[in-house]
Amino acid sequence: CATDGYKCFTKSDLWASCLPSCVPGINLEDPEGLRTPWSCELLEPVEFKGSQIPASFIAPAGSPVDMHGAIRVEGNKLLGKHGQPVRLRGMSLFWSQWGSTYWSEGVVDWLVKDWKVTMIRAAMGVESGGYLESGKIEKQRVVTVVDAAIRNGIYVVIDWHDHHAQSHKDEARTFFDEMASMYGGFPNVFFEIFNEPLQESWSEHIKPYEQEIVSTIRQHTDNLIICGTPTWSQDVELAASDPLQSFNLAYTLHFYATSHKEFLRAKAQVALNMGVALFASEWGTCSADGDGALNLEETRIWLNFLEENHISDANWAVNDKAEACSALLPGTQLPVTGWSTDLLTESGRFVRASLRGENGQGSSTLTVKQQEHQDSATRSCTSGWDNCRATRCCATDGYKCFTKSDLWASCLPSCVPGINLEDPEGLR
After folding, report:
1. Is the pTM of this model over 0.85?
2. According to the model, what pLDDT value does residue 421 have?
3. Per-residue DSSP letters for 21-43?
4. Half-sphere exposure of 303 (CA within 13 A, CB side)
5. Active site amino acids
């Protein structure tokens, strides 16, 4: 708060005010229509600490990033270090300023373990109380999710979730300069530079903005950049006919199954035939407004199209808002044991099953062998003296996983910081 002696007290999940003091409950001095209880939780200023992942960090063995490495675009496909097409599958988080409950390490861990995601999208809100007003808060939320994704060895999309990015070019350039400098050395991290442009000219408005942001990111990294397209990221053929000048670029394709059908797949096919890669960084089982009736049959047609063309995808959204495309029922928290299926909406249950390969759709992983690798990395506990950094759990009762360095941890009954003379001489 700018006023000396005032502090920021919480009224509700959506409102806090600067006051000299606060008493929980109804405040009769509030305007009559706003007399709802104050919780009076004190909100302290946020200090942006940046990433806590050391540059030397190595992806857990058997994880998607360990298997595929740095993703590169070749023709209209994404390829892994092995030279084969890679289709990543996962979930998009909800607007950060409204869905921050689920922007946590625990949520990422659970989505990897139970939903089998190989990618997560961090949709950082820009307007309406997002980055433009609360930059440090929003950046810290992004870092929390990105760090968790790196620890789990999955891919993560840093999304500038904005419909008017060309009007916020200076802010976007500053943000992506910082994020690309911070994370450009990690193959996990992709950059989505314009969520959904509106019905703007590609050549006159969207392309010039994106070209500048691409150039900013390329000062730090060669990682994949995902570029928004006109009309809520649907007019992919317009971008394909006049592409950006760079490399390792994919163009954004967004669809909602109840609203967008064969006409949009036809546009996507035109773009693919022109030789550009597409990335479905946001899609829903419902209508384009995020609500309305589900159309699961059309969703299956879309998922088959994505699978046939090796198009990576992230479902909208990990959130509990009372609308059809939310994956969670209203009020759902993350218990220690994760979410049971009775806490999921119809859309959430369908998408989880799809990601797990349980309803005839392609799973999040490339092959059965790779699925077995990921199960081992995320479920099985470590035995003996093997490295337990990836599993973070030990098979032997009474043993815990203690860190030796950024690259090694072991299962031990206890641990004393410092040199252990029982270690082999060359590893002390």
Report:
1. no
2. 84
3. ---SB--TTS-GGG---B--PEE
4. 25
5. 196, 282
